[in-house]
Here is the input.
Amino acid sequence: MAILIRLGDAADVDAALSVYERSNLARRQGVWPNRGARIERARAHLRDPASWFLLANEGPALVGMASAEALRGEEGAGPVIPGGCFLNLLFVVPERWGEGIGGAILDAVLVEAKRRHHSRIHLWTHEDNERSHRLYRSRDFSPTGRTAGGEGEWGREI
Here is the structure.
């Protein structure tokens, strides 16, 4: 069955959060500090009218999600950077890791970001997350050299 990727809306927030939570718990082998606060931050982000998110379905099963928003200066608290997009979340359910779903979602994010007139996209990912590094490199992202709190920033032109 084919993967269908579509824009999410308010009715999809809890389903998207389920993918986010399941993926984080699996990657961290069940140990996820500040889990509740992180989920609530993600919930607020997904409900924020300034952001948008995509869902990946295979039939009725939700298998992945991603969200983005305009890139802002001052570590996300400043003014919008013209043309910039920030990929905030990208997750696939753990039992489907390695099947190309993350790449399909990322490709859809890039198309949607371009449709929204963004010309550059940035993201932060954990420095020890080789799976995400392979995905981003496969789509021509590269590290910017900025790091903080065990994460590194990546970016590319759209």
Notes: The mean pLDDT is 95. The first strand starts at residue 3 and ends at 7. The beta strands are 3-7, 51-58, 61-72, 80-92, 120-126, 142-148, 151-157. The longest helix spans residues 13-27.
